[in-house]
Amino acid sequence: MAGKQIPDRLTNFTGYRNGSEYLGVVDVDLPDLESLTETISGAGIPGEIESPLIGHFGSMVTTLNWRVLDRANFKLARQEMQQIDFRGSIQTLDATQNYIHIPVRVTIRGMPKTTPLGSLSVGGTMDNSNELETFYIKIIYNGETVVEIDKTNFICIIDGVDYLAQVRENLGL
């Protein structure tokens, strides 16, 4: 039924390395999408403008936070390209006041940047993590690609708009 939907919360999610290797109990901080900018000022502009470079983003870091050291922590520290899929379900209140579950999938590819090993405390968590410099991110929400950024292939699609299509054509890519 079409109509107003109220997204409520992430019911749960799983993480997989290379599409099938279950990662275990982990929390994830997804990267910020921060445009590269340049300050424009001069004659005809009363002040300054931070002008974004369309389709270009600064460093994107994905962080996986673990409770304790785990084998997956070390696999993700390997100095090689890592691909991770996060598959989740978002609890949503629909127009009939019933809860439905919307699928969401986030795929990232990146290289290990830092691997904080955490701390040791009797009876406590270790709070270790993996940080990946993210070259590629794709978000599929309810079956629709809403974000795809591929830094090495000049792809920047946000909400169905391919912001670098003309740039790729101009560059002969």
Describe this structure in words.
By secondary structure, the chain is mainly beta. The chain has one domain (6-32, 60-171): Pnp Oxidase, Chain A (Roll), CATH 2.30.110. 7% of the residues lie in helices and 57% in strands. The protein is built from 2 helices and 12 strands; from the N terminus they run ββββββαββββββα. The chain has helices at 71-75, 165-171, and strands at residues 6-17, 21-22, 26-29, 35-42, 45-57, 61-66, 82-93, 99-114, 129-141, 144-150, 155-158, 161-162. The strands form 2 sheets. Strands 1, 2, 3, 6, 7, 8, 9, 10, 11 and 12 form a 10-stranded antiparallel sheet that branches. A two-stranded antiparallel sheet has the order 4-5. A hairpin with a 2-residue loop joins strand 9 (129-141) and strand 10 (144-150). The longest helix is centred in the last third of the chain and has 7 residues, at 165-171. It starts with 5 loop residues before the first strand and ends with a helix. 14% of the residues are buried.
